[in-house]
From TrEMBL:
It is an enzyme of class 3 (hydrolase). This is Very short patch repair endonuclease. One of its GO terms (biological process) is mismatch repair. It comes from Lachnoanaerobaculum saburreum F0468. Gene3D superfamilies: VSR Endonuclease.
Amino acid sequence: MKEKKPMTRSQNMARVKSKNTKPEVFLRKLLWHKGFRYRLNYKELPGSPDLYIPKYRVAIFVNGCFWHMHENCRYSSIPKSNYEFWENKLEGNVERDKKNYAQLESMGIKVIVVWGCEIKRMMKDEVVAIERADNLVCEIIN
């Protein structure tokens, strides 16, 4: 029988999806059931927001805590191996995000960022999901 080799970090990171992730799909379904209609990965706008709700001019980004360096989050850390590479890459992501958010806001589009850890909590606890969904609806409408 052939032994299974452990994946290298590179192979593992290459398997990470950028679209249609579980947290993103969860949020999409939640908003759809609340009656919101949206565009997915709308390339006409800076940063291609994960969801764009044209009626309310709202761009929603579902950010992974690792890839976008969510502050004070247990899922956000820079890998110890090849530290400089990862530090530059992740900090570059954060800078690009800031630039995209500023561009969107200058166009009169409201930016909402929903973090992966928030959605994980929502997926585990229905009470948290309902509460956060209501807050999100208020953010979109106002």
